[in-house]
Amino acid sequence: MTKSAIIGSAWLMLVLTAAAQTVPAIQLPPPAKEGGMPLMQALAGRHTSREFTSDPLPLQTLSNLLWAAFGVNRPDGYRTAPSARNWQETDLYVFLADGVYLYDATANLLQPVLAGDHRAAAGKQEFVKDAPLSLVYVADLARMGDAAPEDKALYSAADAGFIAQNVYLFCASEGLSVVVRGMVDREEVVRLLNLRSDQKVILAQTVGYPKK
Fold first, then answer.
1. Residue ranges of the domains in the chain?
2. What would the mean pLDDT of 190-202 be, rounded to a whole number?
3. Residue 5 has pLDDT above 60, yes or no
């Protein structure tokens, strides 16, 4: 691990420790890896929707979704989405009605980051504040070592895209509405989450039940 990555990890632990004083961690149930829609049917049904009910997602559904997005799927720590050089630089910030959390794939845990309803900060569209879940993909460039800046920009964007597509396919299989978004107030998210200068907000993605 590089020196900058070590510093970044120490910073993250300080943030999470402070957050834990105000909102508890959420231990997710083990993801259900059986069943679901066949891949070709999920691809046929994959689409974007911007209409959501405000109904919260059950913890089991949330666990399944996050595992499908970027969970650990092998004993050696590799994930359900690829990342260049296995940097695994993408962090998933989970915006729920009661707080903002960081997905810990290894522990299958939502680590508290910030208490309160901050869903509106996850996007500029009106529907974002009422949908039950928004994911914000943040690239921790410190994990990418001494890669060239243009490579960091390219691969962090590509890696976030792989994760977003996993979410799309999961939502197609589960009958959930989903939209990936570039319209994020990045400066506000950086301020809200107290991100470092080498943490970059790449994309956001909103998920929920479809309106009938």
1. 3-208
2. 97
3. no
